[in-house]
Amino acid sequence: MEEAGFFGIGHLDLSVSDVEASAAWYEQVLGLRRLRRVDFPQRAMIVLRHDSSGLVVGLNQHQGFPGEPFDERHAGLDHVGFAVGRRQDLDVWQGRLAALGVEHSPVADTEVGSALVFRDPDHIQLELWWSKSAGDAPTALPPDRGIIERSSPLPVDETVRRLADAVTAAGATVFGTIDHAAGARSVGLDMPETQVLIVGNPAAGTPPMLAAPDLALELPTRLLVRQASPGALGSTVVFSDSTTLARRYGLSSEQVAGLATIAGLVDRALGETTSE
């Protein structure tokens, strides 16, 4: 007899007191996408989907709902935990929840992982969880890759827009944007949201290229903005470290001083996202 099994959660259904209000909350806070509303004789259901993970969530408002908030001390559901890929994703989520005014716990680190806890409008406990057993991908990479990483609580599109505005305001030029995820979708493949913003300033880039012509391979500067991890709403900004470029092409720190300003520009743009 063939052994029975399963490979994951097909969907998650929750009972709520106000299905429209809850659907709006799950869209705004967790980034779920509304698919449809179905009105049954005894309940109304709104179905949402988390596109990155494929999780389908059904929110159900039943007739005769007693109006009592959720209490995990009763038999049934205790809480819902959503996995993130990296420990630092929880810090990004913490900033996002704070910006949205969603009450939440501090990130709690334990021997087996780290958790960030908050509740939905019906007091259902939700948790974002990073497991140590799953590893933290960036720590497995070589320590000196010559790149700088910054975290943004905003999704990729909005982060790219903020960076582009900051570049223009600084008097530099946005030469274009490459949307790798859109390219993948055009050939029927899935890829986390990934864009590359190409920026530069001839006044800063020309002198070092004159001194080291092969530096033109690295310029204009590329700002990689990618989804922080599957299921996360925040994003990660990655760009080349100017000191590594100087070392690679035999330039002095003075010769690449203009290129070094990109780090400050990125920090200012992302700093604005966390102060709003």
Primary descriptors:
elongated, 4-stranded mixed beta sheet, 276 residues, TATA-Binding Protein, alpha+beta, 2,3-Dihydroxybiphenyl 1,2-Dioxygenase, domain 1, 5-stranded antiparallel beta sheet, 7 helices, 13 strands
Helix content: 25-40%
CATH topology of the largest domain: TATA-Binding Protein
Strand content: 25-35%
The value of Rg in angstroms is 23 Å
Domain module count: 2
Spatially, the strands of the biggest sheet line up as: 9-13-12-11-10
What general form does the structure show?
Answer: elongated
Please provide the ordered H/E string of secondary-structure elements. EHEEEEHEEEEHEHEHEEHH
The first-level CATH class name of the largest domain = Alpha Beta
Task: Give the terminus-to-terminus CA distance.
Answer: 59 Å
Structural class estimated from helices and strands? alpha+beta
Mean pLDDT: 86
CATH architecture of the largest domain: 2-Layer Sandwich
* CATH-level-4 superfamily name of the largest domain: TT1751-like domain
How many H/I helices?
7
